[in-house]
Amino acid sequence: MAYNGGPMTEAMYYVLLALMRPNHGYQLMQAITEVSNGRVKMGPGTLYGVLSRMQKDGLISLAEDDGRRKTYRITTKGEEALQKEYTRLKTVIADSSILKEGEKLD
Fold this sequence. Notes:
Elements: H1 10-18, E1 23-24, H2 25-35, H3 44-56, E2 60-65, E3 70-74, H4 76-95
Antiparallel strand pairs: 1-3, 2-3
């Protein structure tokens, strides 16, 4: 399924965030854990599936392939999609301001 500009999966969001600096697979897994403050730990199977899909959708591109490892970078389209998702998430949080701190949803 191609990315259509709608809400992103958490995996897609963190991959794009981590690719603000070009990275290869292992570095990406570490960067995702770091930018999520340890909350998201992505395994190789998930990561490479997301990378393949995002490359086909033009959100990332191959920066280098030395035969041993591939280094990916975010594209302009990917940066635009990341900014759009960031804005969407901020709006979702702002919409939640109706709740008071500590209040629970029924």
